[in-house]
Design brief:
- The complex is a heterodimer of chains A (454) and B (335).
- By secondary structure, chain A is of the alpha/beta class.
- Chain A has 21 helices and eleven strands.
- Chain A is globular.
- Chain B is α+β, with helices and mostly antiparallel strands.
- A five-stranded mixed beta sheet of chain B has the order 2-1-5-3-4, with helices on both faces. A four-stranded antiparallel beta sheet of chain B has the order 13-12-11-14.
- In chain B, β6 and β7 form a beta hairpin.
- Classes of the chains: A alpha/beta (454), B alpha+beta (335).
- The A-B interface holds A 168, 170, 185, 190, 351-360, 362-367, 370-371, 374, 387, 394, 397-400 and B 46-50, 52, 68-69, 71, 74, 93-94, 97-98, 100-102, 104-105, 134-137, 159-160, 162, 178-179, 181-186.
Chain lengths: 454, 335
């Protein structure tokens, strides 16, 4: 049983109110930071902790903070990215819904470290009820003197605002988020300049994920070194995993990084194994945009080592036989799942969410969706499979923002690991005409199916 | 000043110059094509991705190559930077891919399109595209709409370069049109069908790289290569009055701004010059306009055989080297 740093108090009744949260040790990090530490010391603790961005890319948070242009005379901003829209990821919603004050506490401590006087929480429009929860919590924090002028009698002042988006996945990309926050169309910006130099209103800005900001609280409370003791190597601390799919116990789990994937899937403490006693077929380990892995490669790396829940271990083997921890959207598929159908669903999502600014992503995502639709519904031909690989290759790396990559990776990996299944769809259109095709007759290998079909 | 090497040719340019503009200072076939970048429109560029180049050395201080291909129109040069454009098979492959993407939803109605002959996309497809499409699905289509009484919008032909929206933003006093929607269903549009109505709106026709925005006073009058372009000017209180008259006999069929060799307008003209003076007596004619880049207008004077040979050579190399490490830049190719 791992130590719960973020979610230890989550089941206390009334924890979403200021009084209960405060009684259970809340806002201690604000007191500690503002009264006993300089902003640089807070940044130093975060650096020491080895905390990595929890939004998907896994960039070290302390390093991101230290890139902030401190010489600029413009105001600085801390922006919390709560535009959680990755299919398969729902950890931030849970955290904000149950522990709104944890995020606010992290925002105050983080803003103090960065010298920000105004900070924003950009939250996706679909989370409207969470916006209300957060706004109520912010009101309580203002009333208690943790926000506003001269927090806790120190010279530090901070205003915190919640800004709901209008329902675009692309606004989770940090520069599109900033454009949207400025009131413009949410198109990603060209980089450089990076937000650390010219972000919100062309001022130095740090954009962090909800979980990253929340993790600042235990880091300041317990010290960065203490936090770094959890986990393995460069993957330190705890991580919220949104587990979903064909498992017995879907939900949100706070795990110590370094937990073996096998234990995570099969132990009763976590996912509790595959439902209905079926076999596992594939896993998407970090939200829809990371490469999908077949069952054998998710439990063990290509070298035969045990796969662990860390940034490095999941990425072992590169894109040939590895994947990414991403945002922690852990989706498990059993043997009745159809990889082609699943991929089509993902492609449809990226087609719908592409901002349309740069041509490879705008045109390519739509193209892939249409070809996948064709294959899944039994109208494909063999050339389509290589066409998909080629289109994915031409999108990847040639776009302004990572959405193009995110759309291309799942396609490339699914075809790499499950090519037989695509070929099966092309060869036996009458069998896949039923949308539940693999529920009736799980796909194991083409040979076996041919025997059954004959 | 910064020294930068593009395809083996060294050039010294001012700090902050983009790779594309550095290449334009060298000139010739190593200049990357550009569909969305427009020098005189601030913030344009970076979107169409046809100008992608490979940076094999970031700068003299940090000679590491850049991990991805970069948009040359928006990437500033650094001292000691080494760039590959047409000497990199990777770039040519990516560019071919982008051209294919641009043509996916393009209707290819060149035979009835007014832009044919002076269309950037047409030229680009000639040079970098494939003769066949691999796209089997339906293309996206839109209704044609009038934006104002002089401009017709064929959204179906649009490649979403955003140039016209920058014209609206930067040349005209009030922004009246922009992009609606998202992804491949996004469209250029006016706010609730409001007409685009201001003195410089006609320039969006000139900046449009394809036939999405056309001049209603010229539509279906003539193929552009049957007209004679003449430089002319008049005293105009609103603009410089320097224009090109597209004439057939004594008749002025169209008035447009003057474009440079990269298809960019340097001096924008007002709507009065563009639409209201279709009489040759209103103008002082300077003489025939030299068209040196466009392929079809300069009928029979297609002088880019050198480039075609070079491209074939590189394509052959790609075929040959497939699967092998990329070849070193070959200076003889650019000589």
């Amino acid at each position: 049983m791992g130590k719960k740093l973020l979610t230890a108090n989550i089941n206390i009744p009334g924890i979403e109110t200021f009084d209960v949260y405060r009684k259970n040790g809340g806002y201690a990090s604000v007191e500690k930071a503002l009264k006993t530490m300089t902003p640089d010391e807070v940044t130093e603790e975060v650096k020491k902790s080895g905390l990595r961005g929890r939004g998907g890319a896994g960039f070290p948070a302390g390093m991101k903070w230290s890139f902030l242009d401190r010489k600029s005379e413009k105001p600085r901003y801390l922006v919390c990215n709560a535009d959680e829209s990755e299919p398969g990821t729902f950890k931030d919603r849970y955290l904000m819904e149950k522990l709104p004050h944890l995020l606010i506490e992290g925002m105050i401590t983080g803003s103090y470290a960065l010298g920000a006087r105004t900070s924003y929480i950009y939250i996706r429009g679909e989370y409207m009820y969470v916006v209300r929860i957060l706004e109520k919590a912010i009101e309580e924090a203002y009333a208690a003197g943790f926000l506003g002028q001269n927090i806790l009698g120190t010279p530090y002042s901070l205003d915190l605002y919640v800004h709901p988006g209008a329902g675009a996945y692309i606004c989770g990309e940090e520069t599109a988020l900033l454009e949207s926050l400025e009131g413009k169309r949410g198109n990603p910006r060209l980089k450089p300049p990076f937000p650390a130099v010219a972000g919100l209103y062309a001022a130095p800005t740090v954009v962090n994920n909800v979980e990253t900001i929340a993790a600042v609280v235990p880091i300041v409370n317990g010290g960065g070194d203490e936090y770094a003791k959890i986990g393995i190597g460069k993957s330190t601390g705890t991580k919220l995993i949104s587990a979903s799919g064909h498992i017995n116990k879907p939900g949100i789990y706070e795990i110590d990084l370094g937990l073996p994937v096998e234990e995570f899937i099969y132990s009763d403490e976590y996912c509790g194994g595959i439902w209905k006693g079926r076999k596992m077929k594939a896993v998407v380990a970090g939200g829809s945009s990371v490469p999908i892995l077949p069952a054998d490669l998710i439990l063990k790396t290509a070298k035969g080592e045990q796969r662990l829940m860390t940034y490095e271990s999941l990425a072992d083997g590169g894109f040939v036989s590895g994947t990414m921890l991403g945002s922690g959207g852990f989706v498990v598929y059993d043997e009745t799942a159809c990889i082609v159908r699943n991929l089509w669903t993902f492609a449809r999502f990226y087609h719908h969410e592409s901002c349309g600014q740069c041509s490879p992503c705008r045109e390519g995502t739509g193209w892939m969706e249409k070809v996948l639709h064709r294959i899944e519904h039994g109208h494909g031909h063999m050339g389509d499979i290589d066409l998909l690989v080629d289109v994915a290759k031409k999108i990847e790396g040639n776009t302004i923002c990572p959405l193009g990559d995110a759309a291309a990776w799942p396609v490339a990996s699914a075809i790499r690991h499950f090519r037989e299944e695509f070929e099966y769809h092309v060869k036996y259109p009458e069998k896949v005409s039923n949308p539940k095709h693999f529920e009736l007759e799980p796909f194991r290998s083409e040979k076996k199916l041919e025997a059954v079909g004959a | 000043m910064a020294k930068v090497t593009i395809d083996g040719v060294e050039v010294e340019v001012a700090d902050g110059t983009t790779i594309l503009n550095a290449a334009r200072q060298i000139g010739g076939e190593l200049v990357p094509p550009a569909m969305c970048y427009y020098t005189s429109l601030k913030d344009s560029g970076g979107k169409c991705r046809v100008c992608l180049v490979k940076v094999t050395a970031g700068s003299a201080k940090d000679p590491r190559p850049m991990p991805k291909l970069v948009a040359s129109c928006r990437t500033p040069v650094m001292d000691g930077m080494v760039v590959q454009n047409i000497t990199s098979p990777e770039v040519l492959e990516a560019r071919k891919g982008v051209v294919e993407f641009l043509l996916l939803n393009h209707p290819l109605d060149c035979p009835v399109c007014d832009q044919a002959g002076e269309c950037d996309l047409q030229n680009l497809a000639y040079e970098h595209g494939a003769a066949k499409t691999r796209y089997e699905e339906d293309r996206r289509t839109f209704e044609k709409i009038d934006i104002g009484d002089k401009i017709k919008l064929h959204m179906t032909r649009c490649i979403l370069c955003y140039r016209c929206t920058y014209v609206a933003d930067q040349l005209t006093p009030e922004r009246v049109h922009g992009v609606l929607g998202r992804g491949d269903h996004s469209e250029i549009s006016t706010y609730i069908e409001k007409a685009v109505d201001n003195d410089y709106s006609g320039n969006m026709i000139d900046v449009c790289p394809v036939g999405a925005l056309t001049d209603k006073t010229f539509r279906f009058k003539s193929r552009v290569w049957f007209t004679n372009p003449m430089d002319a000017h008049r005293d105009c209180p609103k603009c410089t009055g320097k224009v090109v008259l597209w004439m057939k006999g004594e008749e002025v069929l169209r008035v447009s701004a003057r474009k440079d060799q990269y298809g960019e307008v340097k001096e924008y003209i007002c709507n009065e010059c563009r639409y209201d003076h279709k009489n040759v007596k209103d103008w002082t004619v300077e003489g025939p306009r030299h068209i040196d880049r466009h392929s079809v207008i300069a009928q029979g004077h297609y002088e880019r055989a050198d480039l075609i040979t070079l491209k074939k050579e590189i394509e052959r190399q790609i075929e040959f080297e497939k699967g092998k490490p990329l070849p070193e830049p070959n200076p003889s190719l650019t000589a």
